[in-house]
Amino acid sequence: MQRDTRNYHPVSRLVHWISAFTIIGMFAVGWWMVDLSYYSEWYRTAPHWHKSVGILLALLTLFRVIWKKVKGSPEIEGKPLEVKAAKAAHHMMYLLLAVVFVSGYLISTADGRGIEVFTWFTVPGLGELFANQPDLAGTVHYYAALVLIVLAGVHALAALKHHFIDKDDTLRKMLGVSK
Length: 179
Ligand code: HEM
Ligand code: HEM
Fold this sequence. Notes:
By secondary structure, the protein is mainly alpha-helical. The chain has helices at 10-33, 42-71, 80-109, 133-166, 170-175, and strands spanning 115-117, 121-123. The chain binds protoporphyrin IX containing FE (2 copies).
């Protein structure tokens, strides 16, 4: 059987779309949960879910980066400058994700407790590694998540521009329907 080198690998596509929906959901939940009152039934549940899903997403992203290194990905289409911008944006999104994961970990473990991922396993905590850790990590977490979402929005618009204006295969490659 001939290998499909035009489309992204099915595993890459699955991971891209699962990650995209999860990241948007994580942003919305994060934004909402920090204003919950102590008396809300979600006061404990929402952060527990946010952290559990966040750790699983971090593991999935680690797998994704290794998978990309091993399997590669199709050529990016467009003018040289567009290709450069797309590559920079993709790298930046991976970097911002890493910052969001590390800062999320640092907020959650400053009191020395580990992170319980649902009831499945616990990621050990390293305690307070620097002064004001929860506040500083919280600020970094907030701004990194914000920039990530804005960049992902620009990235999605760029994908739609390729599809509807340039009429190239960029979006089809990520949907697996490129000929
Ligand atoms: C793509 C992944 C993630 C996104 C988009 C995201 C987004 C957010 C956002 C927007 C907030 C609200 C910040 C604010 O308004 O101050 C937040 C809060 C928070 N996130 Fe995340 N987050 C992610 C992953 C994680 C992970 C992996 C952890 C921990 C392991 C985590 C732990 C927390 C905690 C503890 C808060 C509450 C911070 C506070 O009370 O100030 N997050 N997150
Ligand atoms: C939080 C949301 C999203 C994130 C973090 C994200 C991240 C990424 C990353 C890192 C890549 C590079 C893949 C690789 O390394 O091989 C990529 C590719 C791609 N994404 Fe997204 N994405 C998001 C949402 C979307 C949405 C909503 C669309 C469609 C409207 C989209 C369409 C694409 C397409 C078409 C490619 C292939 C680009 C090319 O080959 O030129 N993404 N995305």
